[in-house]
Amino acid sequence: MLVHEYEMFTMHDNEDIKTMFTRFTNITNALQALGKVYTNSEMVRKILRLKKKKAMIATWEDSDDSSSDEEANEEVAQLALMAIEEEEDCDEVTYDELVLLLEKYTCIISELKKKVKYLNIEIKELKSASISLLD
Predict the structure, then answer these.
(1) What is the pLDDT of residues 1-45, one digit of tens each?
(2) How far apart are CA 92 and CA 40, in angstroms?
(3) Higher confidence at residue 69 or residue 123?
(4) How far is 91 from 73, CA to CA, in rounded Å?
(5) Is residue 113 within 8 Å of 63, Cβ to Cβ?
(6) How far is CA 65 from the centre of its chain?
(7) Would you say the pTM of this structure is higher than 0.85?
(8) Residues 6+ apart with CB under 8 A from 75
(9) For residue 122, what is the DSSP state?
(10) In angstroms, rounded to a whole number, what is the distance separating the alpha carbons of residues 95 and 92?
(11) For 15, how many CA atoms within 13 A lie in the half-sphere containing its CB?
(12) CA Rg, the chain, in Å?
């Protein structure tokens, strides 16, 4: 049953990355207690395959406030995957490093979205000011 859970593991709708990793770790720890141990490489590849299936192409055009947490998670996952693929071979990335990379990119995306929101507000204010000057 647990092996099936591991094999069929997916990220739930509206689930954040941290919760997904906690659930995944709980499954692998339970399997380890029963004698079924997955290597670091197997776990990293499992998560990377999972994220590749769900990941969107990360674009910076998605600056509207209506974007969902799931879309943000997918963008974070795609950026982390791109960083891993550019910097290191999958076999060299530990499971813990993967968790840290995804958390790091979650923070970066969040900060960038805040900056984009601020800049959009500033642009609207400048447009309004220039229209006022023309009148």
Answers:
(1) 889 999 888 888 788 878 888 999 999 999 999 999 998 888 888
(2) 9
(3) 123
(4) 23
(5) yes
(6) 18
(7) no
(8) 55, 56, 58, 62, 109
(9) H
(10) 10
(11) 15
(12) 19
